[in-house]
Amino acid sequence: MNDLGRLACALERTPLPLFSLEHDGKKIIATQLDLFAGTPVFYYANTNEVKPFLGYRTTSFGEEVLLEDSPTNPSMVHAPIIELVKFPQIFTKGLKDSFSHKPQKGQKFMALQVKDLVNLVKVASYKILFEEPPLPIFVFPSLKKWRVGSFTRMEDYEEASIFFYYEEEVKPALNFVKYSMTKADAALTNRTDEHGNFYVKLIRLDQTHPLVETE
Question: Are 7 and 16 in contact (CB under 8 A)?
Answer without folding.
Answer: yes
